[in-house]
Amino acid sequence: MDQFEHFNKTAENFYLQLDFIHSLQDQTRHIHNLRVLDYGSGSQVIGRFGMIQKDQEVVLAYDPMSDITPSVSKNIPGAEVRRTNQAPTGEKFHLIVCNFSLHHVNGDLDSVIKELTVYSPEIIGITDYDFTEASLEDFRKTFISEQEIKELNTLFNGDWQACFDYHRRLGLNDFRRCLQESGFNLVVSKAGDKIAKNKFFLVGKKI
After folding, report:
1. CA 160, CA 137: separation in Å to the nearest integer?
2. Which of 38, 76, 144, 174 is in Cβ range 3.0-4.6 Å of 170 for a Cys bridge?
3. Domains of the chain by residue range
4. Tens digit of pLDDT per residue, the chain (207 long)?
5. What is the 8-class DSSP label of residue 132?
6. Which residues contact 153 (CB under 8 A, 6 or more apart)?
7. What is the pTM (predicted TM-score) of this model?
8. d(CA 19, CA 193)
9. CA 152 to CA 139: how far, in whole Å?
């Protein structure tokens, strides 16, 4: 399958991500010198959350489970970009983004969300999976992006059942509840369509 065919097959994933970014832009429009914490970013190139606002100040990609070397760059115009696996103790961020990262965290979801509130975010945005009602067959039909196949092969040695069992531990209702119990009002909630039907995003605003 060439790149054009792959994009056509997985286009709904892209559109859901685009809607997520637009929602974050809408909800942070009133904030000047926006500071963003991209939690659990992994080794992915920072970019999609570095252009949310024109006067964006800092993007910190923080992944406590990564062995990445802390670094600073200016690959996003106007924004300082930092990547680290060390907790940014004492720092404050207007927006925390958890982009398909929370299902990988060690420990329970409630604790992780509550720990993130130490950075005083006004807004938390989450994208993740909900395979709680899906079958293994559905999972195999939708878990097909390049990153997902890489995850299947790298973390689960190509074992579809193990990968499915891992990804269906948490669902939309779990993420929604944790946000609300941590003091955030849900201002946006959207599920994907077609190939992205088991993906969703939430945007919570501090009460």
Report:
1. 10
2. 174
3. 3-130+170-206, 134-169
4. 455 555 567 899 999 999 999 999 999 999 988 999 999 876 555 556 767 877 777 788 788 777 766 666 555 555 677 788 888 899 999 999 999 999 888 778 999 999 999 999 999 999 999 999 999 999 999 999 988 999 999 999 999 999 999 999 999 999 999 999 999 999 999 999 999 999 999 999 999
5. T
6. none
7. 0.89
8. 12
9. 12
The CA distance from 152 to 32, in Å, is 40
Tell me which CATH homologous superfamily contains domain 3-130+170-206.
Vaccinia Virus protein VP39 (3.40.50.150)
Q: Where do we find the tokens 């201002």?
A: 187
Q: Are 160 and 140 in contact (CB under 8 A)?
A: yes
Distance CA 109, CA 96 (A): 15
Determine how β-strand 184-191 pairs with β-strand 123-129: unpaired
In the chain, DSSP assigns E strands to 35-39, 58-62, 71-76, 79-84, 95-99, 123-129, 184-191, 199-206
CA angle 72, 77, 82 (to 5 degrees): 20
The pair of structure tokens assigned to 65 is 């489970």
SS3 177: helix
Strands 71-76 and 184-191: what pairing? unpaired
Question: How would you label 142-175 residue by residue, b for 16+ Cβ within 10 Å and e otherwise?
Answer: bbbbeebeebbeeebeeeeeebbebbbebbbebb
Please say whether the beta carbons of 120 and 92 come within 8 A.
yes
User: Rounded to an integer, what distance in angstroms lies between the CA atom of residue 201 and that of residue 207?
Assistant: 19
